[in-house]
């Protein structure tokens, strides 16, 4: 009985489950009925790309639905409507398919990932719903559309991989699918942050699990996309790269040792596949960014110097001033050179020699620049060949650009400079490619291959015959009109065509009675009627057949041409790189000529000796009748390591600091510099702490930002560093500020690296440091005091300044007179009651005591012995090994003394 009851319960359960599933099936069926076949297809495709805005091709329009439609309508400012979907209204917004190049850039630049879903078959050839699929996924970092790209800027996709917590190494890669450039590096968070700032990627990829870590490390100013964690596996990344480059390992690219960099590179390449970018033959190598080959500049320095970006509206950057390149490739390379100044004196001098040669031979400079102007974007044109997205007009542009390379090559080969001659020798003439394009395509080929008239006459015999049939139609129709007028007597008869009826004969109503019986009436108008004839329909079929065959044949010929062109990718890319290099050097020469720049001289010393230096940006902003006041700056490690610059507010202290950094930067880029003369040893790191800014989003005040930046400098200085500090300590109280400024200066002076430093300050108490520290020298930016005013002379002269003239600056700013009067009274009262002399004397005493080690109790014989031992050490010549030995000796002395005391 128990078994029977159990069986009964089981049977009931099965019956209930069957009933439930039947009900569920019916419900799902009813739900399915509410969704139209089109929307069902849309929903299936959209489910595969949930993070993308889906452009769904319907007839002659790209449509968006639901949330995508709301978002697209807002960005594109197009009408948002609704369509009935089985009783439910779904938001709808769309635009004509031929306007894709107008609307797509707006969506991508707004940060959207856009999936383009096209019709994959001719609607006329199917009786069911048209087959559709995503043909391309365009994201901010993966774009080939000219309206999205900027000609003189790379469009980098970056991938970041965080290594193990113990190694604290981060890998990064930068890939520009529009040019084929692929770079990788790895290092500390600070180094990767600097690279991200320099390369300014349009999109950054990283693992989903690292969202918080990425934001904490690099901020939230990037367009980001998260990939699954399994993509960032070493084996998968290496396999992805080796498969793409068709190699067994990555040793040939010099990146095999970059474990984290390889993983980041593999993730970037994987993402291209995910976004339907599978034709990537133009990505021919991955290159290492060699950290030790370039000048170190942290992100604070890059921001402070305003090299190519500025937080101020309408500000002029260094790039705006010096960029005289005439090709897109040259413009992009110049940015790279600015981001990565050289440390190799040999390479720097090689660039300087070319610039000197071009300046001395103005005819060569002028000729080369004229021809480079005619060269289009070779990198991006050949990339379009590789990806199959090039059109006939762009192929002609590629051919014309390669023809413009020929006279550049000829002129370079005749050059007396070896570097210029080497460029000429390496340039490819690409004669076979140029001739093939010339014989295949018309010079005035259209943008769209479907418009016809792309393939040149005489290239294909069949095509020429079909064209003869098509173009001969006008003569045939004229003959038919003349014949029918004579036969019928209808003098106003004419033959025309439209998309509805095709070809037809139009007769005015006044001649209706003369129409022959065999003519077939097709349309009645107010004043006329339209007819067709058997002869006309037969001829129409012949013409239309020829036009369809022409279109298909031209498309076939063009596709074969593009595939054939793939073998020239590396040759064209090499030409692009060489032309870019030559363009940058020509830019340096032409700017040096106009702006009166000179060649800097490099030697083996640590000195920086600038005679009559000028700020390259500020001098361009001044009116013609206001010459820039130039200044000398000299720094070395032995006598004048730190120059302390005091002077009034607005006198130009910050400008002197910035111009010094920019002169060094330009010199090591390979450019001439704005000065009368410059002699210098190579600089390996440039640090600046100039200007003030809050980081409110991260909860950091101006002072906290200032301290963060200064700490980064003090923790990374080297013997060839250039340090520029402006108004350190002003974000806190006066005594705190003076103490911090003094301590930082003392630290820099006593640090074994003896880093060259310019320190601008409004704390005049700091001037007293020269009495204690031998390598600190005082300078001030001079002013001329008038009766009730002050004149800024902006000239740097020896000696310290004792006045800030802050109230004078307030007066110049238009401060009310009542405020100025009250400020003067308060200033006089404070000067009487709070003398800064006591503070300065105390700071000097503290430093002297610490330097003389007077904190020892000298009545202790051991301490006297230790003092003498330490004071006899020559720190400047002490090697690390000697320092350890000396430290060990002192330790033994202390242990010996302790043992003696214990025995006693």
UniProtKB/TrEMBL annotation:
Indicate the segments forming the DNA mismatch repair proteins mutS family domain, all copies.
721-737
Q: Which InterPro entries does the record cross-reference, listed alphabetically?
A: DNA_mismatch_repair_MutS (IPR005748), DNA_mismatch_repair_MutS-lik_N (IPR007695), DNA_mismatch_repair_MutS/MSH (IPR017261), DNA_mismatch_repair_MutS_C (IPR000432), DNA_mismatch_repair_MutS_clamp (IPR007861), DNA_mismatch_repair_MutS_core (IPR007696), DNA_mismatch_repair_MutS_N (IPR016151), DNA_mismatch_repair_MutS_sf (IPR036187)
Which GO cellular component does the record give, naming just one? cytosol
Q: Name one Pfam family in it.
A: MutS_IV
Is DNA-binding one of the keywords?
yes
Chain coiled-coil ranges: none
Could you mention a single GO BP entry for this protein?
A: mismatch repair
Q: Which UniProt keywords apply?
A: ATP-binding, DNA damage, DNA repair, DNA-binding, Nucleotide-binding
Provide the residue positions that the database annotates as binding ATP. Answer: 647-654
- Signal peptide feature range: none
The entry lists its GO molecular-function terms as:
ATP binding; ATP-dependent DNA damage sensor activity; damaged DNA binding; mismatched DNA binding
Task: Note whether Cytoplasm occurs among the keywords.
Answer: no
UniProt record similarity statement: Belongs to the DNA mismatch repair MutS family.
What role does it play?
A: This protein is involved in the repair of mismatches in DNA. It is possible that it carries out the mismatch recognition step. This protein has a weak ATPase activity.
Q: NCBIfam families of this UniProt entry? A: mutS1 (TIGR01070), PRK05399.1 (NF003810)
Name of the featured protein: DNA mismatch repair protein MutS
Name of encoding gene: mutS
